[in-house]
Amino acid sequence: MDHFKVENLSISFGGLKAVNDISFSVEKNTIFSIIGPNGSGKTTIFNMISGIYQPNHGSIVFNGENLVGLTPDRIARRGVARTFQNIELFGNASVMDNLMLGRHLHMKTGIFKGAFMWGRGSSAAREEIANRELVEGIIDFLDLQSVRNTFVGSLPYGKRKLVELGRALALEPQVLLLDEPSAGMNTEEKEDLNIWIKDIQADYKVTILLIEHDMKMIMGISDRILAVNQGQKIVEGTAAVVQSHPEVIKAYLGEES
Q: Which end of the chain is more exposed for a tag (fewer CB within 10 A), N or C?
C-alpha cells in the first residue's frame, strides 16, 4: 500500500518550470530513488517534500495527510527526516551531542532544559535517559562508538556523512530523504553506505527516498526508480526498466552506457 504519494507537483522560479507535473507513489519500507542530470529538479522535489519550498501546484500526501503548506519542522514532526547534499552538522559539538540534537523534536522539555534537571526521578530526567538510550542504539548501529565524543568537525568526510545519517535516524522517521549520501565518498565508504541504507530499511523499517548520482549504487539497492530530466518525468519502474529506457540512456547515462 502507498503511504507516500506525490501528485501533479509543479514549481516555477522566475517563469522557468523547475518541476513540471511530477507524480509518483512510494510503498512503505521500500527504497525509491530519483535520478537525473544536474539541474533536472531532483533536489527541488526534496525541498518541496520537506517544506523548504511551497509548490505552485500539486499535493504531497503522507499517511493520508497533505503536507503542502506545513513548515519544515511540522513535516519533520510527522516523521519525514532529511539529510542534505552539503553536510549540515555542528562541527564544534561531539557526535553524541549532534545526535541528541536530532532528538529535540521528540523531547517535551527541550534538550537543554532536560539536561539540567538533575533530579533522576523527574519526568524531564526520565525523558533525557530514554532519549540517550535511543541515541546510544544509533551509535552502536552505525558503528560510531570509537568517535562518540569526538568533535564532528575533526572527523573524516565519510564518518561525518554517517553522523548526519544518524541524526536523521534520531528523529525516528517513517520516511527518510537522502540527498546525494555518497557524494565525496571513496569506493570503500560507498560500499559501506550501501550496507547501512539496506540495514536501515530492514532494522528501522523506514521508507527511503534517495537522490544519488552513483548509478551502480542506485541500480543495486532501489526497489523503484524515477528518472527525471528538465523537471519532467521520463520513466518510473524497476532498475531494469529504467536502465534500458532510451531517454534515460541519452539524458543521464551518456557514454557510460
A: N
DSSP E strands, the chain: 2-13, 16-27, 31-35, 57-62, 65-66, 80-83, 175-179, 207-211, 224-229, 232-237
Q: How far apart are CA 36 and CA 126, in angstroms?
A: 46
Question: CB-based contacts of 201: which residues, under 8 Å, 6+ apart?
Answer: 29, 30, 31, 208
CB 195 within 8 A of CB 220: no
Does the reported pTM lie above 0.85? yes
Domain spans of the chain? 1-79+173-257, 92-171
What CA dihedral angle connects 180, 181, 186 and 189, to 10 degrees? -160
| Highest CATH level, class, for 1-79+173-257 | alpha beta
In tens, the pLDDT along 180-219 reads 888 888 889 889 889 999 999 999 999 999 999 888 899 9
Give the span between the Cα atoms of 210 and 52, in whole angstroms.
Answer: 17
Cell output for 242: 529504467
CB 28 within 8 A of CB 45: no
Q: Determine the straight-line distance between the first and last CA of the chain, rounded to whole angstroms.
A: 34
Contact 248, 227 (CB under 8 A): yes
Residue where the block lists cell 493520508: 64
